[in-house]
Each structure stands twice: as structure tokens, then as C-alpha cells.
Amino acid sequence: MSTTRVLFVCLGNICRSPLAEAAFRRAASEAGLDVHVDSAGTANYHVGEMPDPRSIDEAGRHGIDITGYRGRQLVVQDFHEFDYIFGMDRSNMTNISRIQPEDGKAQVRMLLDIVRGSEGRELSDPWYGGEDNFRATWEDVTMAAEALVAILRDGHS
Ligand code: 4NP
User: Fold this and answer.
1) Domain range holding 79?
2) Is CB count within 10 Å lower at the N or C end of the chain?
3) Closest Cα to atom 7 of ligand 1
4) What is the pTM of this model?
């Protein structure tokens, strides 16, 4: 079976999408799925930077080290190279669609749309929040990671 390529996208690539990447890396690895996982931001504010310290702490609470992750910006080539591109909120989806080429292969969806009962719900930005918001982000990305594993493994969540 070929490798499935999954890209998680938020605004800055330092808070939500690194946590989505970490949660899905772990879930896919536990399920034995052959995946390539990455994350990106629609903005260039934090290119080359480590994740937000609060995201590093949240991942650390779950035994995952994300200090090696570095911010990068979404590029047109991503639509040709990835099978799935997931945005976190509606603003991300608008920004993603602005550079989406017509002939890209990636399926582009809002992340919580794949979680039964959370369709249409945004994975809100914890940037202005506190530790509780980062915990909530972790819960959301974990649910989405499990749903995505089920989709890739069984064809549905
Ligand atoms: P993220 O959060 O999109 O989840 O990485 C943010 C990170 C940085 C900024 C906004 C949101 N910022 O304005 O720099």
C-alpha cells in the first residue's frame, strides 16, 4: 500500500497544526498506518520557529516532544503532494482556498468535519487563551486523529 500524505494547516503553524500533527503521528503509528505527516501555516509570521511554548508543554503532557518542529508556510506545491489538507477554522479554509490550484490532488476539509457530532465546528485558536485552551485543542486534535485513522483504515470514521 502506498503512503498517505496528510497536511494540517492553521494560521501560524505554531499552536494548533503542530498539535494536530503530533496527535495524528501517534495515532497513525499506533494503528500501523503508512503515513507522511506535516503541518503548515497560511501566514508567514512564524516561519522557521519552534511551536508556541504552550503547545510544546501540552504535547509534553502527553509524552510527545515537538521541539523539533519548525514553522513553514503553505505553498501551492502542497496541493499536489498531499492527499489530504485539513484546515482548523473557517478563516483557514478561506486562506487555503485562495491559493488552491484547480488541478491539485489534495482533498481539502475542515478538520472537525471528519469527527461525528462535530461537523461544522471550528477548532478555535488558543493563541489568546491559556493552558485550558491548549488542553481543549489537544482534545479536539486527538478526536480528529482517531477519526482520520478510522477513515484511512476502514474507509469511514
Ligand atoms: P495557530 O495560532 O494558527 O494555531 O498557530 C496562532 C499563532 C500565531 C498567531 C495567531 C494564531 N499570530 O497572530 O502570530
Assistant:
1) 4-154
2) N
3) 12
4) 0.98
